[in-house]
Amino acid sequence: MRAASPLLVLAQLLAPAASQRVAHVPAFFWSEKADIGIGKSAQHLGEVSAVDLEHTVQTILGRHHVIASPLITGVRKAPAPEVQLIFHSNEITTEALREHGSSLSNVEKLLETSASSLTAPFTHGMYMDSDVLRHGLHIPSSEFLAYTEHNPQVFTNGATDIIVVELPAGGADLAESLKKQDEAIAIVSGLVSKLTHGNYASMLSATPVPAKGRRLAETDLPKLHITKDLYVALAVSLFLIIIFFSGFCCLFGLQTQRKFEDVLKQAQHN
Questions:
Q1: How much is the pLDDT for 214?
Q2: What global pTM score does this model have?
């Protein structure tokens, strides 16, 4: 009997959390041949910030040795990959994964067959102003084949290049849109695998608009309500503090005379 799909099992685990309408997005990491320190078919069910995602990518690239990431559970045993792919989507959310996880069949296969792979369903995504996305080369998935034909040296130059693959935006049918993005991921991954002989690492994440709105909403603090009695108490306390400091200053301002005259001697002389 075939084991249950990891993404389907994960989708069942996500159901209670996703029902809270928290704006999370999943993140997937995989490396075809290299051990990049994230484990094999691992799952991280804790909340992951955008900074942690960026530190994870930087650690995979060998650029961060001090800053820890909760997603790195081991030691990176391979050199930096030839290419770091970052698949960027605006539609792959935790809620979408819960409802249409079966649409990402190619991603599931990549996670199962790769030497290192990790799934983190509760992340805040990577914002476009992050260092990784800002300095990466952005290429639409529909133009990736043409880019590889005109720039084959990028995949064999011995230096790690960050390529951000913009996945196609879908229509009203979310399941169909996820299938198209899943197919695009499979095509791009296959091309890069051949060009680099499997020496590449990939990440799939998203930057949903609700996540940023939620992040701002969390900073809103409740209003402080002041009552009449509290206002009177504050006013009286302020008045007493003023009296105390005034008396304190006057007390230390008192000075004795430098010389005291003998009153009796003065009377006798008179």
A1: 46
A2: 0.69
